[in-house]
Known about the structure:
By secondary structure, the protein is of the alpha/beta class.
Amino acid sequence: MNSAPLETPPAVHAVRVTGLTKTFGSGDAKTVALKGIDFETREGELHLVVGPSGCGKTTLLSVVAGTLEWDSGSVTVFGQHLNQLSRGAVTAFRGRNIGFIFQQFNLIPTINCVENVSVPLLLGGVHRREAEERAAEMLKRVGLGEKIQARPTSLSGGQQQRVAIARALVHEPRLIICDEPTSALDSVTGHQIMELLAGAARAPGRCVIIVTHDPRTYNFADRITEMEDGRVRSVLAGEAIRSFLTTHR
């Protein structure tokens, strides 16, 4: 008897956004940043969001991260409807599940690198000694093993970026949200960081979303969402990404 072919399990959505709108200001100063956005990211995926400055990319990710309230629409992250949570519950959910890589780094200048990277672990209740051991190991993985005791102010911009990346990864969040993570990095280091992020994205039950203008990152993507003027222009995957690469090098 022939056995039935195995079916591919359905993709599990890590993030699903439907009909999302966001407006800043009012009256003559009113700016509509998001105009009915539909967006989704699956577990095991590295998803890039691209488009011109001011098109709504960072606003979209801020909403998904739970750091910005929105006007209408629904936002679900790992099955949790964020619009059904209080602000305090959103903050707790974010601390457990989301890691951030900010374009401005947001490092604490008065403490050293290993202490900066330890912060998410300490906030999660990890003992200081264990937190610093895990932070030191993550700094080694981003190529900064010799800078563990250095303060951020003594580092170059690219080194500070790598400290910020280590901090975002150290507590192994399910969703990593990045704003231009390779912007301050040379090509070799940028490639290494993207390999690290791609590995994090494909770990079970996780994903990475990156806002970027850097074409060096495009060939790491499982999907690319193009935005323009507060709307999704296109969503690319597979062969469509390869075609996109030929026109955006």
